[in-house]
Amino acid sequence: MLYEGGFYIQFKCEICGNEDPKYIGYLNNTPYCRKCIQFKGEAASEDISYLKGKSKAILKYELSQEQKVISNKVLNNFINGKDTLIYAVCGAGKTELVFEVIEYALNHKMKVGFAIPRKDVVIELARRFQATFKKNIVIALFGGNTNLLYGDIICLTTHQLYRYEHYFDLLILDEIDAFPYKGNDVLEAIFKRSVKGNYVLMSATPDDKTLKSFNDNDTLLKLFTRYHKKPIPVPKIVIRFSIFKYIFIIKKLKEYEEKDLPSFVFAPTIEKCENLYSYLKIFIKNIDYVHSKRDNRNQIIDKFRDQKLKCLVCTAVLERGVTIKNLQVIIFDADDQIYNEKSLNQISGRVGRVIGATSGDVYYVAERKTKYMEKAIEFTIYANSKL
Questions:
Q1: In a 10 Å sphere around its CB, with 0-12 CB exposed, 13-18 middle and 19+ buried, how is residue 148 labelled?
Q2: Parallel, antiparallel, or unpaired for β 153-157 and 112-116?
Q3: Which pLDDT value is given to residue 50?
Q4: How far apart, in whole angstroms, are the C-alpha atoms of residue 162 and residue 107?
Q5: Which residues of 340-353 are buried (b: 16+ CB within 10 A; e: fewer)?
Q6: 3-class SS at 300?
């Protein structure tokens, strides 16, 4: 509580809405919020726009009939001032579902943002948007890359939304269940603060609370089939102990090597990732590793995309936003507590995403079967039943 003009007043943070006294500090008798103190920097101006002429989304393929229906519903919701949740399986083409509403917003001189929790995915999406909206300026905004704040489409991490107060006429937030956004009340408040018009949320694995908040049939849009209309590869559980886990993985990677198939081997922690790589590199050629603390991971991932590497040992840093043709996936120690149903679904969803390469291996290698493995497999089978 602040004492001002003979009255006690409640301090409320203008950025994140915090009112809890234990998170309020004072400097020269002036209050500040400890919860969002790191969110300091240049704020965007309402007056700047780069919009020029007509915008047109250029797609590499025609949307499926289901995608067209959902795309049109997203647009209608936006025109009618409604927010939308898109609940779609990995590989369903979620990003393509919002191209139509982005095109509409740009052509009506509206400010468009596309937010996502992770920097790596922001960079990838900015490339995709620039290829799709060729006449527009697309920027990627994230920590360490904040010199340019303005563009027709602003792709940014959720952390950077603090710069845009009541700014976006259309704000799309993908991967709402991903770290560090999920469960972060400061980032959630900053997201809502940055919206001037309406928003679209997207996820392959939304939580029950989010699903219940969109109980209107028109605002909760589900898509459980992939755009290529082929079944999602069903994961297989492989129970092995001790050294036999490594033997199985090496055998599989050798098979992929002979068939010239790219592969990811996921490990639950950075330490296990590095240790597993140190062992596998003895037997496997063209292999490297990436995790959140490896500085040059973007260059390594680019080498993988360019087929200069055939196998990456990785952590959850690659569980989202990555599409590689003919990819095979092995999850090492899939019974680790870090893997729940949603994370297993996300990782499994890396496989079979590309037209002409819709099959592939997904192996859960573990010492025991968990309920999360079973639920992830059950969901995949359920999604395939919608074909």
A1: exposed
A2: parallel
A3: 64
A4: 26
A5: ebbbbbbbbbbbbb
A6: helix
Please work out, in degrees rounded to the nearest 5, the angle formed at the alpha carbon of residue 141 by the alpha carbons of 85 and 324: 65
- Dist. CA 6–CA 8, nearest whole Å: 7
Q: What is the mean pLDDT of each run of 10 residues along the chain (387 residues)?
A: 48 80 78 78 76 80 90 97 95 92 94 93 91 93 90 94 95 90 89 96 91 85 90 97 97 98 98 98 97 91 94 93 92 97 94 93 98 97 91
- Rounded to whole angstroms, how far apart are CA atoms 278 and 291? 14
Query: Is the CB of residue 346 less than 8 Å from the CB of residue 373?
Result: no
Residue 267: closest CA among 330, 328, 321: 330
CA proximity to 126, closest of 135, 117, 115 = 115
- Provide the pairing of β-strand 84-88 with 220-223: parallel
Residues with Cβ within 8 Å of residue 373, at least 6 apart in sequence: 235, 237, 334, 335, 344, 364, 366
Complete edge-to-edge strand list for the sheet that includes strand 168-174: 138-141, 153-157, 112-116, 168-174, 195-203, 84-88, 220-223
- pTM to 2 decimals? 0.85
264, 327 contact by CB (below 8 A) = yes
Which among 345, 354, 81, 377 has a CA at the least distance from the CA of 230? 354
Half-sphere exposure of 284 (CA within 13 A, CB side): 33
